Amino acid sequence: xxxxxxxxxxxxxxxxxxxxxxxxxxxxxxxxxxxxxxxxxxxxxxxxxxxxxxxxxxxxxxxxxxxxxxxxxxxxxxxxxxxxxxxxxxxxxxxxxxxxxxxxxxxxxxxxxxxxxxxxxxxxxxxxxxxxxxxxxxxxxxxxxxxxxxxxxxxxxxxxxxxxxxxxxxxxxxxxxxxxxxxxxxxxxxxxxxxxxxxxxxxxxxxxxxxxxxxxxxxxxxxxxxxxxxxxxxxxxxxxxxxxxxxxxxxxxxxxxxxxxxxxxxxxxxxxxxxxxxxxxxxxxxxxxxxxxxxxxxxxxxxxxxxxxxxxxxxxxxxxxxxxxxxx
Amino acid sequence: xxxxxxxxxxxxxxxxxxxxxxxxxxxxxxxxxxxxxxxxxxxxxxxxxxxxxxxxxxxxxxxxxxxxxxxxxxxxxxxxxxxxxxxxxxxxxxxxxxxxxxxxxxxxxxxxxxxxxxxxxxxxxxxxxxxxxxxxxxxxxxxxxxxxxxxxxxxxxxxxxxxxxxxxxxxxxxxxxxxxxxxxxxxxxxxxxxxxxxxxxxxxxxxxxxxxxxxxxxxxxxxxxxxxxxxxxxxxxxxxxxxxxxxxxxxxxxxxxxxxxxxxxxxxxxxxxxxxxxxxxxxxxxxxxxxxxxxxxxxxxxxxxxxxxxxxxxxxxxxxxxxxxxxxxxxxxxxxxxxxxxxxxxxxxxxxxxxxxxxxxxxxxxxxxxxxxxxxxxxxxxxxxxxxxxxxxxxxxxxxxxxxxxxxxxxxxxxxxxxxxxxxxxxxxxxxxxxxxxxxxxxxxxxxxxxxxxxxxxxxxxxxxxxxxxxxxxxxxxxxxxxxxxxxxxxxxxxxxxxxxxxxxxxxxxxxxxxxxxxxxxxxxxxxxxxxxxxxxxxxxxxxxxxxxxxxxxxx
Lengths: 328, 556
Hints:
The structure holds two protein chains of two kinds.
Chain A: H1 2-12, E1 19-24, H2 28-42, E2 45-50, H3 53-63, E3 71-73, H4 77-85, H5 94-98, E4 112-123, E5 149-150, H6 159-169, H7 171-185, H8 193-201, E6 207-211, H9 212-222, E7 230-232, E8 243-250, H10 257-268, H11 270-278, E9 284-285, H12 309-312, H13 316-324
Parallel strand pairs in A: 1-2, 1-3, 5-6
Antiparallel strand pairs in A: 3-8, 4-6, 4-7, 4-8, 4-9
Chain B: H1 30-57, H2 59-66, H3 69-102, H4 108-114, H5 123-131, H6 139-151, H7 153-165, H8 169-176, H9 181-210, H10 213-218, H11 223-233, H12 237-263, H13 287-315, H14 326-357, H15 362-370, H16 378-392, H17 401-411, H18 413-426, H19 429-437, H20 442-470, H21 474-479, H22 487-496, H23 500-526, H24 529-532, H25 541-548
Helix pairs in contact in B: 1-2, 1-12, 1-14, 1-15, 1-16, 2-12, 3-4, 3-6, 3-7, 3-9, 5-6, 5-13, 7-9, 7-25, 8-9, 9-12, 11-12, 13-23, 14-15, 14-17, 14-18, 14-20, 14-23, 16-17, 18-20, 18-25, 19-20, 20-23, 22-23
C-alpha cells in the first residue's frame, strides 16, 4: 500500500507544480543559481535546506526511510559516499552518469560528480615570500613554520587532504604530521576556510590551506583592491594537491524519484554546467564538456595527486586521525 | 514594594520573602497542579532525552569520549574565559552602577540608558562588529573584550536596582562610627549589593557557557562551539552527549555556587519601605575621568557594533550571495519570537500561581525543577529535541516551525517565570477570595480578577522572552524550517560567507526590533509603584529587575 503510494507519487510528480526537497551542503551561491535555473525550465519547485554536508548526511541517516530529502548535493564525496555505504541512495540514471567523466562518479553509480575544486595554499606576500612556502603538504608540520600557518580541521574540505596523506605515508606518519601542524598553527586553528582566507588576507597569519575558490570568492566579496593575498599550489602530484569532487545523489526513500532524477540530470547538463562556469561560486565545471570561464588555472593544467574518489571513501579515516590528534 | 531586601540576585531562584500565604491552606486546585505538571514535563524533556541518549551510547563510550585530549583543552578554554569575563563584568558593572545610582555624575539619566542598551545587541553582532574591523580581535583576547562589552549589563542591571533599593542610612552609620570612606564602600555599599553582584555574575557565567555565535566568529574554541561541530560531524547525540554532559554539569555547578553563596549572610532592611532621599556622593575632581570612562565604555560597547554595521551596510563589497529578503526574515523572526513569548508566558502562569499561592509541596518542587533549564544551553535543547523526535516520535514536528517555537519557550521559560511570579506575588489574594465569596467560579476569578491584576507582569514576561528570542542564534540555526530564514540565520549565512555588506542590515534590524521590548521593559521596571498608583500590582520590585533583564542575546 505504502509502496503503491510511493510509486504513484513518483510517477505523478515530475512536472510543473510538483516540488522536491534538496539537502544542500554546497555553497549557497552555487545552489541558488542552479535551483533557479532548474525551476525556470521544469516548473518544479525546489525546497532547499542548507547546512554543512556532514550534518545533512547524518540527518538523513537518522531520518531513515522518512527523510524529507529527495536529493542531496554536497561539496565533497565522503559525506555522500557515507550514505551510499548505508544503502540509502538510489541509482543515478545512466544518461546522467554519462555526462560526467567516469573517474569523477561513484564507482557503483550511486552519485554523479557535478563540479570540482582543488586544494591550494593562500599566503600573504607581506608576511612570507613565495619561495619560503612549503612545496609539500608534509612541510606544513615543519617547526620553521611555527605560528605562520592557519587551517580549519573542522572543515570537511580538509578531510580529503588528511586521507591522502594517510594513504601515502601511513597512519603513524599522518598522525605525527597532524600533531606538528596543530602545534604550528597554534591559535590559528579556525572554524572554516572562509575565516582562514580572511585572516591570511588581512595579515593575521602568513599562510593557510584552503580550496582555490575561497580566494576567488573573497576577491569577489571585498574587491581586488582589498586583496593582500595570493594563492599557489603544492608541487605537482603532492599528496596535499587534492582534487575534490562535488557530487549529488537521489535518496532511495524519495517519493519523487522522477523529479529528483531530473534535478540531477540538470546539474550535469550543459545549462547547469554553464551556470557553474559563470556563477560567482568559482568551482570547476566537469561535465558535458563545459570549461571554466574564470581566471583560474584551466582545469586540464591542474596536476593533482592521483587519489581516487573510491580511496577518499567516507572520510572516517580522516575523522579518526583528527580526533586522535585532538583536533576534533 | 514588599520584597525590597536589597539582594535581588537571581530572583528566579529567589522566592519572595513573604508570599501571601493564606492563613487556612485551601486545597490545591487540581487543574493548576495538572497544567504545572505538564509544563514541567515539557521543560525537562530535553534533559531526559539527553540522558536517554547518553545511556544508549553506553557508559564506556561516553567516558572514552570525555577523557580524550580535546576535552581538557575545551575545559581550560571555557573555564578561563568564563572566569576572566565574569570578573571583568563584575567590576565594570558594579562601578558603573554605583556611579549612575549613587553619585552626582553629570547626565546620570542618559548614562543609565546608554550603558544598558548594549544589552539589546546580540553577542554575535558585537563580535561581528569587532572582528570585521580588526584581526586583533581574535582568539582569547578577542573573546575577553567582546564578551565583556556584550554582557556587562547583566551585572549592571541587578546591581543598579540593588543600589536604588539599598538603605543609605547604613553607610551614614558606618561613617559616623569612624570607618573610612573606602572601607565603608567595600563593607557596606558593596556588602548590600553582594547578592545582586553574585546574581549578575552567575548570569554572565551561564551566558559564557551557552554562547556559540560570538566564539565561532572570533575563532575561539569552547565546549559549545565544539559541541556544534560534533553534531555537524555526526548527527548523533550519543557522541556529542559526552561533551554536553560535561557542559550541563558545569552549568549546574555555577547554579549551585550561587545558591550556596546566597545562603550565607543576610541583608535586612527594617521599617517602612520609604526611600529616604539622601544626597548623592560627590565625585568632585574625579568627575572628568569618570565621564571619560563612561564615554569610552559606551563607545566600545555600543558605538563599535552599531557603527560597524552601519559602515558595512553602506561600504560592503560586491554581493555574491542571494538570500531571503529583509522583509521575509523580519516577518519570520517576529512570528516565531512572538508566538514563543506568548507560549512561554502562558506556560509560566500555572507554575507561578502554584508556587506563590500554594508554596508548600509540589508547587515549589515544580518551580525548582523548571530552573534546571538554566543549565541547558540552546544548542543542547535544540539538538536533543530534533534528534529525539526523528528517532522516537516518527519525525513529529521535525523541521517544522512549532518545534522552534516550543524550543524557544523551553529555553526562555525561566525569564517568563520571573515576571509572572513577581506580579502574582504582589497581587492581593484577598481580592480573589472576595470574588470567590461572591459566588464566582475559579476560572471566572482567574479571568476577571487575577489576570487583570497581573497583566503588567505578563506583559513584561512577554517582552523579555520576545527580546531573548529575537536575538537567539544557536537553536534557531538548528531548528529553522527548511526554506525559511530568520534575521539571525540569514545574518549568519552572510557573515559566514564574509558578505559583511549583506549581513549588516540584518543585524541592524535585529537591534531595532530588540529595542522595542527593551524600551517597554525599561519603562516597566523604572516605574515606581507610588507614582503609578498601582502599588500592589506594578512592582516587580527590584528583585525582579535583575534576573529579568539578563538574558538578552544570550541563549541561556
